[in-house]
Amino acid sequence: MSRIWPCQRVIMSRNAKCLSQLDSLEQKSGSQRISAYVRRGLMRYQEAADYLGIAKGTLANWVSQRIGPRSIKIGSMRLFRQEDLDVFIEEKLFETERFEKRRRRQRGRGALVLTCQHPDLFLFSVLVLALAVFIFTVP
């Protein structure tokens, strides 16, 4: 008795005309099945990690913590669609932009720092300006 894979169940339940595809899937070896997933735009951990530019272990940690990209589990394999990886990248770019804007806003709330070639002259001019404001505003 041959094993029925989850992807075969989907093919059988959605379209009865695809029964010939089932025979061809059953005859394929494991590596050929994996390449069939790749042709459908599905990637395994290593390919998805390479696509994102991160280590395979990092991607596995993110998936286990549920902070990584969406994935599909078929049997014991976890697969990632390229569209889901692209959405994940876009979300991370948006989060980074928001974080940078927030950091710039917080950075702008600090003390005013001015640099001058002649700090003594600058300090003198500030004192003169403060004295002038004081003299002309006091009745």
Structural commentary:
The chain has 139 residues and is mainly α. It has two domains: 1-40, no CATH class; 41-137, Multidrug-efflux Transporter Regulator, Chain: A, Domain 2 (Orthogonal Bundle). It contains seven helices and three strands. The protein has helices at residues 6-14, 19-27, 30-39, 45-52, 56-64, 82-107, 119-137, and strands at residues 42-43, 72-74, 77-81. Strands 1-3-2 form a three-stranded antiparallel β-sheet. Strand 2 and strand 3 (77-81) form a beta hairpin. Helix 4 crosses helix 5 (56-64). The longest helix has 26 residues, at 82-107. The protein is rod-shaped and about 90 Å long. The model is unreliable at 4-26 (pLDDT under 50).
Salient structural properties:
139 residues; mainly alpha; Multidrug-efflux Transporter Regulator, Chain: A, Domain 2; 2 domains; three-stranded antiparallel beta sheet; 7 helices; 3 strands; DNA-bd_dom_put_sf; SinI_DNA-bd; Helix-turn-helix domain-containing protein; transmembrane helix; membrane
What is the topology?
Layout: H1 6-14, H2 19-27, H3 30-39, E1 42-43, H4 45-52, H5 56-64, E2 72-74, E3 77-81, H6 82-107, H7 119-137
Antiparallel strand pairs: 1-3, 2-3
Helix pairs in contact: 4-5
GO molecular function: DNA binding
Transmembrane segments: 111-136
Domain Helix-turn-helix: 46-92
Task: Please indicate the count of domains.
Answer: 2
Number of strands: 3
What CATH first level of the largest domain would be assigned?
Answer: Mainly Alpha
What's the end-to-end separation, in Å? 104 Å
Number of helices: 7
Tell me, rounded to a whole number, the average pLDDT: 76
Oligomer: single chain
Ranges with pLDDT <50 over ≥5 residues? Answer: 4-26
Order of helices and strands: HHHEHHEEHH
Architecture (CATH level 2) name of the largest domain: Orthogonal Bundle
The structure class reads mainly alpha
How are the strands of the biggest sheet laid out side by side? 1-3-2
Beta fraction of the residues? 5-15%
